[in-house]
UniProtKB/TrEMBL annotation:
It comes from Trichechus manatus latirostris. GO terms for cellular component: extracellular space. Belongs to the IL-1 family. This is Interleukin-1. It comes from the Eukaryota. It is found in: Secreted. Keywords: Secreted. The lineage of its organism: Eukaryota, Metazoa, Chordata, Craniata, Vertebrata. InterPro entries: IL-1_fam, IL-1RA/IL-36, IL1/FGF. One of its GO terms (molecular function) is cytokine activity. The keyword Lyase does not apply. GO terms for biological process: cellular response to lipopolysaccharide; cytokine-mediated signaling pathway; inflammatory response to antigenic stimulus; positive regulation of gene expression.
Amino acid sequence: MDRDLASVLSQEEPLLGNIQDISHQVWFLQDQTLTAVPRKNCVVPVTVTLIPCKCPETLEKDKGNPIYLGLKEPEFCLFCTKVREHPMLQLVERNIMDLYYQTEPVKPFLFYHSQSGRTSTFESVAFPGWFIAVCSKAGCPVIITQELGKTYTTDFVLSLLH
């Protein structure tokens, strides 16, 4: 994906793709909640939108590429906030390109995308050490966690649409 991120810096459109975990659960929007469900014939995964942050100050050595991550339809962006002293992942109705054109990085919407082989992780910029995750049980919401490799899966396969 890194080859595409460099070229998208000068593009007017975000990259589009699908995300699934290593157990073949895809991201699916259910009643405005992003969930992970098994890939089946009747399941249409959400199309994610991603575009790098163009502010160089967000680059951090060995963290990955800072990106904004959203959904194509309906138009939502993933957003990290604190609820009762605990970081939470939420969907906010927002155009991803509005974030891209900001003069300062909008950290609650930013994730470090790191790729190792075929799998990717997405770490919150606003909450370092917290990663986008899903549980192994079907129908669970997509969350952020700091418990890597324990209860939740934080490794995903990002398939870009061409």
